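Record format v2
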Amino acid sequence: MGIRVSEENRSVCRRCRGEVVANAESFDVFEQMHYTCFHYEFEHAGDPDIECTAGGCPAAGISVASLHGRIGDIEMASAGNTIVPAILTLRRLHFDVTQDADRWVARLGRARFVADDPVTLLGLIKLAENRTPWRATDSEIDDVLAEFDL
Ligand SMILES: [Zn+2]
Ligand SMILES: [Zn+2]
């Protein structure tokens, strides 16, 4: 048994003094804290409202503000000088990156992405991250075709 700050079966967070309910099973794993409190105590760097690079950051839910916060007022264009940074970013996201003939392949667990260049690989990963399922419906396709020349 770990040292629990508790009355009967209630687990009280060492950081915020609130009752731990959702992750009560992992009370000792998270050093007798809420997962969120543990994350902000030991893992998170920088502004607590901006998602950090540790997996499971609670700030991920504030995605519009945090994405803009992380991107800033940058202006980029796809060109030769974005290829190496794209490969380095894929590696930082723990993808295994290989070249298969003239195509680029990124793997993470059983997920596999194939594209003509590393920047497009990153785009596919962002697409998979943001849409489940990623394919567009017929009505979505009609709406977009009415707006853009594809
Ligand atoms: Zn707490
Ligand atoms: Zn964080």
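The radius of gyration is 21 Å.
Residues 1 and 28 are 9 Å apart (CA to CA).
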